[in-house]
From TrEMBL:
Gene3D superfamilies: ABC transporter type 1, transmembrane domain, P-loop containing nucleotide triphosphate hydrolases. Residues 1-146 form the ABC transmembrane type-1 domain. Keywords: Glycoprotein, Membrane, Repeat, Transmembrane, Transmembrane helix, Transport. GO terms for molecular function: ABC-type transporter activity; ATP binding; ATP hydrolysis activity; ATPase-coupled transmembrane transporter activity. It comes from Musa acuminata subsp. malaccensis. The chain crosses the membrane at residues 87-106, 118-138. Belongs to the ABC transporter superfamily. ABCB family. Multidrug resistance exporter (TC 3.A.1.201) subfamily. The keyword rRNA processing does not apply. This is ABC transmembrane type-1 domain-containing protein. The keyword Membrane applies. GO terms for cellular component: plasma membrane.
Length: 299
């Protein structure tokens, strides 16, 4: 019944357009919600990673207040998708008007063009049901948009080009390195909490570059020195250990990948850890985890 299909086809768009509009609106909302959650997540991450500082300065309530305030905008944005979907569902009430129109026009086809009532009903059902199904299906594209929005963050990290490339083989090597501190001497860097002691060490190891000024090693700007060579001549022992979820031996090998077992034992002995490690169930092959800054063998 091409006459009825042709006349009723524009009404098909009335059922599809709301779904398309909802999908486009939800994609924008998904990005905004993601950005708002990132703000709150950053606050929580900093608070947890610096929990000792938060606790020592007794700013727990202030931190929770800042975190709660950061969630306010995400709550408002979270209500909009439900409101938008409600409007879309309400717009589907136009189907009653579409059925009324097709019943009227279909009756004229039956009276003047020898149409059949069953065919009119079949065409109307196909158009209305198809339009509603397509409109509802398009609204589910939001899940693809959410995945796309989350994927953007991963791709941003994957495609990111670090300013300081630890794998770079470029740079100069200082043949006769003497350093700025005489051999055998001890230099203490003293200052209050937050004065920049750790920052100085991080700058020397080129974890990041200074925004102003320069750092020289034997008169050579360290930014022009081969990074792997520079770090191979600096030993850093942090006040809080950081272990990887692997064996004790492999953790020690991060300092020197080609080290022999004798060198691994010598390093552990020099740090007064050999006796402790030897008492573990599998010795240097014991799998460890870091919990409360303590080493526990895996179960």
């Amino acid at each position: 019944m091409w006459r009825l299909a042709l006349v009723a086809f524009p009404t098909f768009l009335l059922l599809v357009i709301p779904g398309i509009m909802y999908t486009r609106m939800f994609m924008d909302l998904a990005r905004k919600i993601r950005d708002e959650y990132e703000k709150a997540g950053t606050i929580a991450e900093h608070a947890v990673s610096s929990i000792r500082t938060v606790y020592s300065f007794m700013v727990e309530r202030r931190t929770m207040s800042v975190f709660s305030n950061a969630l306010e905008d995400s709550i408002k944005l979270g209500l909009l998708p439900s409101l938008t979907k409600g409007i879309v569902v309400w717009s589907n009430s136009v189907t009653f008007a579409i059925w009324a129109f097709m019943a009227w026009y279909g009756s004229r086809i039956v009276m003047y063009h020898e149409g059949k009532g069953g065919t009119v009903f079949a065409v109307g059902t196909a158009i209305v049901t198809g339009g509603l199904a397509l409109g509802s299906g398009l609204s589910n594209i939001k899940y693809f948009s959410e995945a796309s929005s989350a994927g953007e963050r991963f791709m941003k990290v994957i495609r990111r080009t670090p300013r300081i490339d630890s794998d770079s083989i470029e740079g100069t090597v200082i043949e006769n390195l003497s350093g700025d501190v005489p051999a055998g001497k001890t230099v203490a860097l003293v200052g209050g909490s937050g004065s920049g002691k750790s920052t100085v060490i991080a700058l020397m190891e080129r974890f990041y570059n200074p925004l102003g000024g320069e750092i020289f090693l034997d008169g050579v700007d360290i930014r022009s020195v081969k990074l792997k060579w520079l770090r191979s001549h600096i030993l850093l022992v942090s006040q809080e250990p950081a272990l990887f979820a692997t064996s004790i031996k492999e953790n020690l090998l991060f300092g020197k990948e080609e080290a022999t077992m004798e060198e691994v034992v010598a390093a552990a002995t020099a740090s007064n850890a050999h006796n402790f490690i030897s008492q573990l169930p599998e010795g240097y092959d014991t799998h460890v985890i870091l919990s409360c800054n303590s080493i526990f063998p895996s179960i």
